[in-house]
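ok here's Class I SAM-dependent methyltransferase:
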Amino acid sequence: MTENADRDNASFFARGWVVASPMLERFGLFRARRRLVAGLSGTVLEVGAGSGVTFEHYPPEVTRVVAVEPDPHLRAHARRRAARVAGEGARMSIEVVDAVAEALPLADGEADAVVFGLVLCTVPDVPAALAEARRVLRRGPQDCPGAQERPGAQERPGAEDRPGGEIRVLEHVRAPGRLGRFTDRIAPAWGHVGGGCRPNQDTEALLAEAGFDVAALQTRPFPPMVPLMPMLTGASRPLGTYAP
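and the structure:
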């Protein structure tokens, strides 16, 4: 498939998603999105913002949202929704930018959280996207070798003593057993009409391979409309330490 055909296919999917999304929200995604961002604060990078349906769910402790959306149709919808949320009195700033998951538009350690909501199934290079997420996350004391041994480190509570940033995920994943084998068979056709979506992706394994702690992630049933793909949900932090 040519690059132009890929772009046209994604645009076709984007138009369909804008129509279908409100119905899916009523079937359970509304509550799932609220859980996705509950408890966040500071600067949040949202990857694959789509039409901006998550914006209204951010808690008041979030002061800044940088929302990445490469599809121009979805990006236009997201910008209108961001303006609507601002007009309703939200104090956070929302910037919707044209960028991709593999090249996130924040500096190292700038984000308190990175949010992935129904997007990793379409990202061409998931390991690169997760490496970028880890790069932009705020580092905690456990991420900086020798930080706790510095003179006075234990006596100076403050921002530098907070845990490192986290990612939040709401991603459909391959179902187990017979349903999973069925999604394996339909994956090529599904991706063709679904903007490159991979219905049989093992996102939890990809997160673990990228160095994220997956112990607290849970798999929940998807709303009844699409029972083939359960949802992987929860929060995760990077394991290990960053290079000094």
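+1. Residues 25 and 155 are 47 Å apart (CA to CA).
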